[in-house]
Amino acid sequence: MSLNVEERLKTLFSPKKLQLTWHDNRSSFLSCRKGKDGVSLRLHRLFASAPSRILEALPSYILKGDRSAAALLREMAHRYFSCQKAPPLPLQAKGMVYDLEEIAEKVRKSYFPALEPISIGWSEAKSRSRACRSMQLGVYDRHRNQIRIHPSLDQKKVPLYYLTFLVYHEMLHAICAPKLDQKGRIIVHTAEFRALEKQFEHFALSREWEKKGLLFHGRA
């Protein structure tokens, strides 16, 4: 499958010794450790069928820090993951306080009636004690067409309007696809996204509640 690619990469990284490992983790399409004489490289399998210019960009970025090569690699990963689809994860939508499927359906009917239903559920969090700024409260997984919400929000002191806004925000990601700027950076919250976000009925109130961190400081 990737033997020719591996040999090609070893040649491109020469005289550095290359130790290559393939993976299927979407959270990081490449990672590396550089030593005095060699490079330990973990690559997503998307590179197994990459054209020559992409393979040549890898040593340029990793060994030389070439920004144009980095932009090229990000663009390839972005296009690849935008096209790849997988089934949703088996998550629980009905919590102790809030039912995410019920909230999501109301948001969809009110704001996006033409949008197909999106899978939604509470994510499996390792800890509920992390600070708000280091916690990802919601995420839209385009790969699985699924929204995951942090379970810390499943409590009575979280206003329904805020949780609804968060679901609306994540649903917007299904409407507004990320874009690449001229430097090859992926822009998730585009100008179109920001404009639509403000159309939520309780946008200002939700942002104010979020800014004060009421959930995590016990003032809600």
State the shape: elongated
The topology string of helices and strands comes to HEEEHHHEEEHEEHHH
Strand content is 15-25%
- In round numbers, the mean pLDDT is 86
Alpha-carbon distance between the termini?
A: 55 Å
Low-pLDDT stretches:
127-134
Compute the number of structural domains: 2
What structural class do you assign from the helix and strand content?
Answer: alpha/beta
Strand numbers in spatial order across the main sheet: 1-3-2
Q: Number of helix segments?
A: 8
CATH architecture of the largest domain: 2-Layer Sandwich
**Major β-sheet profile:** 3 strands, mixed
Task: Explain the overall architecture.
The chain has helices at residues 3-13, 52-64, 67-83, 100-111, 160-175, 191-197, 203-212, 214-217, and strands spanning 17-23, 30-34, 38-44, 119-122, 138-141, 146-149, 179-180, 186-187. The protein contains eight helices and eight strands; from the N terminus they run H-E-E-E-H-H-H-E-E-E-H-E-E-H-H-H. The strands form three sheets. A three-stranded mixed sheet has the order 1-3-2, covered by helices on one side. Strands 4-6-5 form a three-stranded mixed sheet, with helices on one face. A two-stranded antiparallel ribbon has the order 7-8. Residues 127-134 have low confidence and may be disordered. The chain has two domains: 3-83, no CATH class; 100-217, Metalloproteases ("zincins"), catalytic domain (Zincin-like, 2-Layer Sandwich). It is an alpha/beta fold and 220 residues long.
